[in-house]
Design brief:
The protein is mainly beta. It folds into four domains: 36-173, Glucose Permease (Domain IIA), CATH 2.70.70.10; 185-332, no CATH class; 346-458, Chondroitinase Ac, Chain A, domain 3; 464-549, Immunoglobulins (Immunoglobulin-like), CATH 2.60.40.10. Strands 13, 14, 15, 16, 17, 19, 20, 21, 22, 23 and 24 form an eleven-stranded mixed beta sheet that branches. Strands 1, 2, 4, 5, 6, 8, 9, 11, 12 and 18 form a ten-stranded antiparallel beta sheet that branches. A hairpin with a 4-residue loop joins strand 43 (527-536) and strand 44. The structure holds zinc ion. InterPro entries: Cell_wall_metabolism_enzyme, Dup_hybrid_motif. It comes from termite gut metagenome.
Length: 550
C-alpha cells in the first residue's frame, strides 16, 4: 500500500515536472530585427524535407546572429553544402544548427583559421567540449550569410531534440513573433490509379485536376490520391509546406500528415511520400515517415467498388489554425482494368534481395532498399561502336532508400587508362550525370541509389580553371578562380601561394574557388606565385599558375 502511494506520488510529480518543462521552454529571437520566414519546417525540397526554418535577413549578409538560449557551442563546421555552420546545444534539451553563415566571431574565427592552415583543408569540423564556448541568450555567436547551397542571404536554423536527434519544428516557439493569417491552399489534385488494379476516367495513368474545376471523377478499383499544396504567411510571397493535411472519404478520415518531426534517415523518404511536388495521401511499404498516418488498413489507398458517389474531402491547416477545405466527388463506375503483363519482365519485390544478371550488366539491391515493389521496363540499347551499351531499367527514375551495386561491361576500350571510365545516369532529357565508378575486370562498378538508365562514359578532360580579374586581387584581397568541369564532378582541389598551402573555399553556387588573402600569412604589396590544382573524379588535373602582386 505504502509503495503504491509513493508510486502514485512519483508519477504525479514526474508528470507535473514534465508538463512544466514543456510549457517553460522558450527561445529568444536569433535576430534583433523583426522575423520574416522564407521557408518552414518540413517543406518539400528536391531531394529532402527542409529540416529547419529559413529566416530572411533583410536582403543582406552580415547580420548579428544571436544565440536563442543558454547553452554551449557544440560543433563548428565549414562545409561546401551548408557553408559556415554552428551547432549550439541548449540547456533545455534542444540543439540548434545555424547554416549559411558568413563568418564566426572571436575566438572561434581564429580557431577555424588555424585549423584550416594546419590541416590544409577548407572544410572544418571541430567538436568543442561543454566548457569551451558557453553562450547565453541574445549573445552574438556569428554573422548571418549566404554561404554554401543558398539562393540568397538568409539564416537556416534547425532545431533538434538533443536526445533523439530528431529535427522538430521551431515555429511553435516563434509564433508570437510572426504573423500568419493566410490558410494553406491546394493547387492541384492528382489521382494515382494502381497498376493492374485501378482506373480513373478510363485511364491507367496518373491524372491531375485543378480543384474547383473538377467534374466528378469516374473511377473503379484501387486508386490513390495526392495534392500539390502550399502554405502562405503574411508579409511574404514565399511558398511554405503545409503543416497538417487530412483526407476523408464519406466523412471518415483515411489519411493524415502532421509535419512536426523527422530524423535524418526519414528525410529521404520524401521520394516515397511525394511524386514530383505532389504529396501522396498514401503510405508505401518502405515509407516509415512517422508524420504520416493512414486509418483505412490499405495505407491510404482506396477501393472504389460500388456504383455510387464517394465524397472526398481535404482539410489543410497551418500551426495558427488557418484552415481550408476542398471537396470533390469520385463516382464509382465499372470500367475495364487492363491486367499487368509480367511475362518476361523483371519484377522487384522490396522484401527480397533483387538482382539482374544480363550480358554486360549486373545489379544487386539489398532487401528493403525500394519503397515499393517495381515492375521494371528493362531495355538495352546495344551499340557496338560505343564504350558500353545503354541499360534502361525503368522509364522514370525510381529512388531507393539505400544503395545497390551496379556493374556495366565495357565493350570498347577507347582509352587505355582505366581510371577514366565512369558510370553515367541518363535523364529523360538525355542529360548525363556522373555516378563515378571503378574499372575492374572489364566492368565499371558504382553504387546507385536510384533505378533509371545507365551507361559507361570516359572523362579525359581536366577541369578548366580561369583566373577571375587577377588585376583586382590586390585591391579586393580576394583571389578568385572559376572552374568549368564537363563529365565527372570535382573531387578535390589545392591552392598555394609561393608553394605554401592556403585555404581556398569552393563556392558551389557559382563554381568559384576563392581565397580571402590573410595578410598575416601572405605579405601584401609584393609579388607572389599563386597556384591552384583541381582534380576531377577520373583523376584529370587542371593546373593554373599566376604571378602577381597581392
Ligand atoms: Zn533552409
Amino acid at each position: 500500500m505504502k509503495h503504491y502511494i509513493i508510486l502514485i506520488l512519483l508519477l504525479l510529480f514526474t508528470r507535473h515536472a514534465y508538463s512544466q518543462k514543456e510549457s517553460l521552454t522558450t527561445f529568444s529571437s536569433p535576430f534583433d530585427f523583426p522575423l520574416i520566414m522564407s521557408g518552414n519546417f518540413g517543406e518539400l525540397r528536391v531531394n529532402h524535407l527542409h529540416s529547419g526554418l529559413d529566416f530572411k535577413t533583410q536582403g543582406v549578409s552580415g547580420k548579428k546572429l544571436l544565440s536563442i538560449g543558454d547553452g554551449y557551442i557544440s560543433r563548428i563546421l565549414v562545409t561546401h553544402g551548408s557553408g559556415h555552420m554552428l551547432h549550439v546545444r541548449y540547456n533545455n534539451g534542444y540543439t540548434a544548427i545555424y547554416r549559411h553563415l558568413s563568418g564566426f566571431v572571436s575566438p572561434i574565427t581564429e580557431r577555424v583559421d588555424n585549423y584550416q592552415y594546419e590541416n590544409e583543408t577548407w572544410e572544418v569540423s571541430i567538436t568543442p567540449d561543454s566548457t569551451e564556448y558557453p553562450v547565453h541568450a541574445r549573445q552574438q555567436i556569428a554573422w548571418s550569410g549566404n554561404t554554401g547551397y543558398s539562393f540568397g542571404p538568409h539564416l537556416h536554423m534547425d532545431l533538434l531534440e538533443t536526445e533523439s536527434g530528431d529535427y522538430v519544428d521551431a515555429l511553435p516557439f516563434y509564433k508570437h513573433l510572426i504573423k500568419d493569417t493566410r490558410a494553406p491552399a491546394i493547387q492541384s489534385i492528382m489521382f494515382f490509379p494502381q497498376a493492374g488494379k485501378g482506373v480513373v476516367n478510363g485511364k491507367e495513368e496518373r491524372q491531375a485536376f485543378t480543384p474547383g474545376q473538377m467534374k466528378p471523377i469516374q473511377a473503379w478499383g484501387l486508386i490513390g490520391v495526392g495534392i500539390k499544396a502550399y502554405d502562405y504567411m503574411d508579409g511574404t510571397n514565399n511558398r511554405c509546406g503545409v503543416h497538417t493535411v487530412s483526407l476523408s472519404v464519406d466523412d471518415k478520415e483515411v489519411f493524415r500528415s502532421v509535419v512536426d518531426r523527422f530524423s535524418t534517415n526519414e528525410s529521404r523518404m520524401i521520394y516515397s511520400w511525394t511524386y514530383n511536388a505532389y504529396m501522396k495521401s498514401v503510405i508505401e511499404p518502405g515509407n516509415k515517415l512517422r508524420m504520416l498516418q493512414a486509418f483505412n488498413n490499405q495505407n491510404g489507398l482506396l477501393t472504389i467498388d460500388e456504383e455510387r458517389d464517394y465524397r472526398f474531402k481535404y482539410e489543410l491547416k497551418d500551426l495558427y489554425g488557418n484552415t481550408s477545405r476542398y471537396q470533390f466527388i469520385v463516382r464509382g463506375k465499372p470500367q475495364s482494368i487492363a491486367q499487368q503483363d509480367y511475362t518476361g519482365k523483371y519484377y522487384f519485390n522490396r522484401d527480397k534481395v533483387n538482382s539482374i544478371s544480363e550480358p554486360g550488366l549486373e545489379l544487386h539491391i539489398p532487401k528493403e532498399s525500394l519503397y515499393n515493389n517495381v515492375l521494371l521496363n528493362y531495355n538495352v540499347r546495344i551499340d557496338s561502336e560505343s564504350i558500353a551499351n545503354t541499360y534502361q531499367l525503368t522509364d522514370e527514375p525510381i529512388p531507393m532508400q539505400t544503395y545497390g551495386d551496379l556493374y556495366i561491361g565495357v565493350r570498347n576500350k577507347t582509352v587505355a587508362d582505366t581510371t577514366k571510365y565512369y558510370i553515367a545516369s541518363i535523364g529523360k532529357n538525355g542529360r548525363t550525370t556522373s555516378l563515378g565508378g571503378k574499372y575492374e575486370n572489364g566492368f565499371v562498378k558504382t553504387r546507385v541509389r536510384e533505378l533509371g538508365t545507365f551507361t559507361v562514359k570516359v572523362d579525359t578532360i581536366p577541369p578548366q580553371i580561369t583566373a577571375v580579374n587577377p588585376t583586382q586581387w590586390r585591391s579586393t584581397g580576394k583571389i578568385i578562380f572559376k572552374i568549368t568541369e564537363k563529365g565527372t564532378d570535382i573531387a578535390s582541389y589545392r591552392g598555394t601561394v609561393d608553394g605554401e598551402y592556403v585555404p581556398f573555399g569552393w563556392e558551389i553556387m557559382t563554381n568559384r574557388i576563392i581565397y580571402q588573402v590573410n595578410p598575416l600569412k601572405v605579405k601584401k604589396g609584393v609579388k607572389h606565385t599563386v597556384e591552384l590544382v583541381v582534380t576531377d573524379e577520373c583523376g584529370n588535373k587542371g593546373v593554373i599558375t599566376i604571378d602577381t602582386i597581392l
